Amino acid sequence: MSDTDPDRPDFSLDDIRREGLLPPAGAAPVAHDGTGRVDLRFAVEGAPGTEPAVRSVRVPPGVMVFDAASWNGIAIDSTCGGHGTCHKCRVRVEGPQPPVTRHDERTFTPDQIADGWRLACLVPAVQDVTVTVPPLTTRPKAATVGVGRQVILRPAVQKRYVELAEPSLADQRTDLARLRDAIDDLELVCDLSVLQKLPRVLRAADFKVTAVVVDEQLIDVEPGDTSTVRHGIAFDLGTTTVVATLLDLETGTPVAVASMLNKQQPFGADVISRISATMLDPDALGRLRGAARDTLAELAGEVCTDGGVDPVTVYEIALAGNATMVALALGIDPEPLGVAPFIMTTASYPGVLAADLGVEVHPRAPAVVFPALGAYVGGDIVAGMLATGMDRDKRTRLFIDVGTNCEIVLSDGDRILSTAAPAGPAFEGGAIRCGMRAADGAIEVVRLSADDPASSTPVELGVIGDVEPMGLCGSGLVDVVAELVRVGLLDSSGRFVPDDKAAEVAPALADRLTFVGQERVFVLHRPTPDADPAESVYLSQRDVRELQFAKAAISTGWTLLLEELGLEHNDVQQVLLAGSFGSYLSPAAAVRIGLVPTLPTLRIVSAGNVAGEGAKMALLSLRERTGAEALLEEVTYVELSDRSDFNDRFVEQLAF
After folding, report:
1. What is the dihedral of CA 306, 368, 265, 433, to 10 degrees?
2. What is the pLDDT of residue 23?
3. Residue ranges of the domains in the chain?
4. How far apart are the C-alpha atoms of 448 and 462, rounded to whole Å?
5. Could you tell me which residues are beta bridge partners of residue 410?
């Protein structure tokens, strides 16, 4: 057919090249093996001094590098779930270079771009390349203990050593009846798996055995006297961090504690991102459940190894988590939690086994899953209220679990109200230009000296690990904003003051106010004295806005709860800041930016990992476990999203 054939379609090769269907003119040919797949070689960097772990995968052309990694279990840092908004999924591409997006230009310096650095969620896999993945922080700084109460040690797990009379022609009771008669204060029930091993164990042990009972469920019969060996594991299943505590149920003491990042992180930093993932991809629920199970299983193995405990002697686990995390871990569709009217499948989860959560302990170990008050006030908050005695104290107390989804509880000694506020990822370092998780290199404390231009330390930084600052974590973000407000470099609206005003109010700090691109920033740390601000650790104007939105959501929540009970700021006798972030937050900084009521700092207490404490209490005491269920009837949930005045009240709380 000739080029002038009238039947030939009219098209432009340049148009097709722009659509990505053909390579640009002069581009090197892309080598494939004819199967329609792209070979990606991931080099995942580890600890300093170690060789990268190399893994090759094959994916369909056009798949984003971030998704290719996620599908194959390769973790790349992200807090937005691969939607191009958090700028955390930084990788270096070796080989044919992908196009540079506007997000890349905002994230990397020109030299970094030339060196192949890109955001993985915006790089389509269209050519065979090597992708270098920086180390992912899997052990963030986390609160592993928190405020708790003394409890009477009476765990559900009991072990009874018995010496049974052997059967005879004169005594032909069944094996199970013989065991029940010896433990006649309990109404023992058992399933087929126990019956299958019962006759063998009894006779091999000369009828001298230890019965393992949880509540009144006979879960095992062990030869000999093992009555002093019984353990449980308490899990705080957080959206960001998961904490496991191995307990000796004989003494009530902790044996080992471990924490790590939730392996669901690649799907997004908050519950909405993860719910959205299941709505967009039918296979995402299975992968999210697998990630949760892998996290719990790894932590269980770690604490058992650290404590020198055989996992088979872990006879019960307890799990406290928000409604979405629990649903995902159990493989329950979370979509109804993410759309109005925000309905849970169930508030309580009876009959769950540790095996259902992927935890490899005793095969018949039950799992105590804390009940939830609502779609966004979950079992972790119920556990926190249990640990802090919110239903027992007659003082007016405000409980705030600060995180991507902030849960708030207020009690005046008679009534208990709860609500949830969507704070976003700012407190986790997400959506912040130089934000990072609380790991080595993260700035967590900031102190500013405004007056003396000759001062050698106008900016004092507390850095996790005492290493070179690499970024800003949540507590550092609150600290620096509070300090900038205090010295006058941020006005009440959250805007950086003009240069002349800065020189007047804070001469020692004025030269740190500069620009990165078109955006005003405050430089916290330069790697070298003459380093470009873009290569430094800084706070941007947009970062301030992100914090304002987060703190306004939280303060609107507790303000409306105070109004519901007819209370003022000064009526609050204690504020409990819970969770990993709340544990390291400066009370003075929280007051200064309006994150908590204006109160003397002695009334503000860092409560730590109270969800984990509540989970431990449920393992140690049947009475406390019953108390957790009772809280469902005692607490009133206040829905903020349907209040007509919420937006107006939110705007009122934006100012510092």
Report:
1. -90
2. 41
3. 31-133, 157-223, 233-369
4. 12
5. 398, 417
Q: Are 134 and 77 in contact (CB under 8 A)?
A: yes
3-state secondary structure of 292: helix
- What is the Cα–Cα distance from 276 to 288, expressed in whole angstroms? 12
pLDDT score for 139: 52
Those residues with Cβ within 8 angstroms of residue 371's Cβ, 6 or more apart along the chain or in another chain: 347, 348, 349, 379, 382, 628, 629, 631, 632
Among candidate residues 32, 139, 141, 149, the one with its CA nearest the CA of residue 96: 32
Q: Which residue has the tokens 């601000």?
A: 533
Tokens of 1: 């057919």
Distance (Å, whole) CA 70 – CA 268: 11
Mind listing the pLDDT tens digit for each residue in 500-547? 999 999 999 999 999 999 999 999 999 999 999 999 999 999 999 999
Are 157-223 and 233-369 the same fold in CATH? no
Domain 31-133 has CATH 1.20.82.10: no
Helix or strand run (H / E) with residue 477? helix 474-487
Q: What is the pTM of this model?
A: 0.78
The CATH class of the 157-223 domain is alpha beta
φ/ψ of 105, rounded to 5, equals -65, -30
Decide: 476 and 499 in contact? Cβ < 8 Å: no
CATH 3.30.420.480 fits 233-369, yes or no: yes
